[in-house]
Amino acid sequence: MAYTDFISLVHKSTKRDYLARVNEYPKAEAAKLAKRFDYDYWDGDRKIGYGGYKYDGRWRKVAQAMVDHYGIQPGQRILDVGCGKGFILYDFLQLVPGLEVRGIDISQYAIDHAKEEIQEFLQVGNANQLPFADHSFDLIISINTLHNLYCYDMFEAFREIERVGRTHKYICVESYRNEAEKVNLLYWQLTCEGFYTPEEWQWWFKQTGYTGDHSFIFFE
User: Fold this and answer.
1) How far is the C-alpha of 5 from the C-alpha of 216, rounded, in Å?
2) In the chain, which ranges are E strands?
3) What is residue 57's DSSP assignment?
4) Does residue 67 surpass a pLDDT of 90?
5) How many CA atoms lie within 13 Å of 180's alpha carbon, on the beta-carbon side?
6) Do residues 168 and 140 lie in contact, with contact meaning Cβ atoms separated by under 8 Å?
7) By C-alpha distance, which of 85, 93, 68, 98 is closest to 4?
8) Do residues 196 and 185 lie in contact, with contact meaning Cβ atoms separated by under 8 Å?
9) How far apart are alpha carbons 154 and 149 in whole angstroms?
10) Secondary structure string (H, E, C) spanning 172-188
11) Are 194 and 154 in contact (CB under 8 A)?
């Protein structure tokens, strides 16, 4: 298991006004709407989520970094746990034709509005019960998803990722290293249920038997 950062270039490209996040719109109402994971979260106002999540190629460099790092080859199988609209899976297919990709997400809206080219490979489901056979994927990724689960579901999700993974696994979750980053995380987040330091995440990895790679998003 190694700390491997694929996400910083995407995460740090977004400018965030943390105070505006809590002052411009009632935060509790925004979180309530966001946790439905429907139109408001994906394509509604920025105060409630992505503010319109359209394909723009932002994840292509992340997919390329993973292809290079893990040596992804045609014929291998990739699963995205928390795939949303499936944009990074589309990028994987563009970079390595002949891959087999699958995605699972809690949001029916996201699946219904996924990129058309890969929609047939995506399905609604929960990370705590993956509908796939043991050791059936060469790479499993989960980006900005597992911290949205309550601890008991997150525990099972890590176990499920281990179960269906065959070789490589990578997760990215939100975290904080100091009080300033904790406050920024609390101000910015809308759907997070697990607020843990890197040391606490390491504890979770040990408890669940997770052996894959990981990285953290910090709100600096």
Assistant:
1) 8
2) 77-81, 100-105, 122-124, 137-143, 165-175, 213-218
3) S
4) yes
5) 1
6) yes
7) 68
8) no
9) 5
10) EEEECCCHHHHHHHHHH
11) yes
The pair of three-digit structure tokens given for residue 92, joined into one six-digit string: 């994987």
CA dist 164 and 48 (Å) reads: 33
The domains of the chain, with CATH numbers, are 8-218 (3.40.50.150)
Distance separating alpha carbons of residues 39 and 34, to the nearest angstrom = 9
**Average pLDDT of the chain, as a whole number:** 96
**What residues pair up with 216 in beta bridges, in sequence order?**
173
Task: Write b or e for each residue in 133-168: b if 16 or more Cβ atoms lie within 10 A of its Cβ, otherwise e.
Answer: eeeebbbbbbbbbbbbbeeebbebbbebbbebbeeb
Interatomic CA distance for residues 119 and 114, integer angstroms: 6
| SS3 state of residue 45 | coil
d(CA 80, CA 67): 14
- Which residue reads 């509604």 in tokens? 44
Cβ neighbours of residue 41 closer than 8 Å, sequence gap 6 or more: 33, 34, 35, 48, 49, 50, 107, 109, 190, 191
Both tokens assigned to 150 = 């309550």
Q: What tokens appear for 46 in the block? A: 């920025």
| C-alpha span between 123 and 108 (Å, rounded) | 8
List pLDDT tens digits, range 6-36.
Answer: 998 788 878 899 999 989 999 999 999 999 9
Token pair belonging to 73: 């080859």
